[in-house]
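Reviewers of the previous submission asked for a worked example of the structure-prediction workflow described in the proposal, so we include one complete record here. The input consisted solely of the amino acid sequence. No template or homolog information was supplied to the procedure at any stage.
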Amino acid sequence: MKRFDFFKRIAFILPALICALFLIFFIYMYHNETLSVYRSEPIFGYSVFSDMNMELSDDSSAPAGVRKIYRGILPTDLSQEDYLCFNIAHHNIEIYFNDELVYSLSGAETNVIAKNVGSNWCIVHMGQNHAGKEVTVVLTPLFEAAISKTPEFLLGSPYTVAIEVITGELPLLIISSLCVLLGIFFVSVFLYFRFILKTDNNETIYLGLFAISIGLWKLTDLRCMSLLMPERALGLGYISIGALFLTGICLLPYFSTLFVNGKNSALPLLSLVGSLVCLTVLAMQLFGVTEIRQNLIYSHILLIISILSVPVTLLINRIVYKNWELKKSWKLLLLLGIGIAVDLIFYYRNNKNGLLSFSIMGLIIYTLIIFLKSVQDTTRKAYTDSGTGLVNRARWIELMNKDISASKPCAVLMIDMNGLKQVNDTLGHDAGDKMIFNLSDILRKTLPRTSVICRWGGDEFTVLLTDVNRERLDLEIRNIFAESEKYNAENPDLPIHFAIGAALSSEHPDCSRMKLFHLADQEMYRNKKEWYSLQQPQE
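From that input alone, the workflow returned the following structure tokens.
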């Protein structure tokens, strides 16, 4: 039997290990193994058009007070499939061929809220008829921070450009999408626990919202998204900035659920302040006071405050309340915080977002581990009696409805305390509760770890023993009575008495677990009557 269980365990673990090995194999093959390809004539491609000279022109009518004008001469060997391509964010765009306007991009006049244009790919067909012409690109920055942004001009096939951009950002596209899906899954689990199991799991909802926010932030900020959905580039830009604000205010309420017994009143206060900041930024956008993009610094401040809130609160709790305890591993929180901090440093040092892979990978690792622990804790809470810490009635019913394994016979015990009503009437319910808790401790101490002990009702307990025969069942019952007698000798003022009924599956081969439970209950009541018949009337 033990050898069979060992092989079952190996059969369960081995596929997971093989999946991990294949994942490493996939990553290696994707990044390290390539093809050697030779073509006598190149297919559609592109080249960097570096012959563009830029001049900065002051213009008081421009939003940022300047316009950037790029001029160059197009090659004379253009083919019919050639395009001018470049990506730029937060700029109005005008393109001229020999002073003839051939392309322009700006916010629509019908826009009520938006003053920005987001990040856009400009793709203009040239062809042989424009060979040798002067090309002029006028870029009008919409914010001062956008003045330093410089586009890279490309000549060639837009399809090749698109393939290279999408391929380069594909890993981040996948993991950003995974963040959003994880967040949606977390929120769904929260709703399931809240409305189906009637159990609070508030930390899961904010962890899910944080995952959605950080995933949307990066997903909509990728250059390939505006390439795939050029008509929605404006909306994608606002979603990206808005999601960045939400990451901070979702972290703070999540962190406020992590502390055990210590004071964390500053965290809800910070969460409230952060929410008011985000609401103010949104109102300023809606009423045309300032663009949300111009308030980006506040989203970064919220993230920094969120990262620092846990160690600062821990330090305060240690100094004032002598408490270091967290519900979650501080190492995992440190991993997440370092990821976000590195990305913020990269942004300000390089004046662009970069890959942001640190925060996203840190989030995925953190959320997966914490979520699994959270679900485990919430499930345990849903199936645990709050008073004794034993399995509760709901979990017991699930166990009773499971099929009996023929290879592992089981036994069901029903235990009901005797004389508890008299104790409650004479000594009070506190004394009665103490007796209930002491009996649960006796059962926990006496019965094997493989057994399932349940608090069925107020003073009723049930036990499920597996892989047991009559000899072992009788031994377990004798051990329970022996331990209770030892307890009564040490606590003569509040002795514990109870009746036990038992039913063994090997003696009732046609009975389900639920039927065994009813048989044990009937035997317990027979023993209970017999015990009372030997006592003086107590009720």
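The longest strand covers residues 410-418. We consider this example representative of the routine output the project will generate in years two and three.
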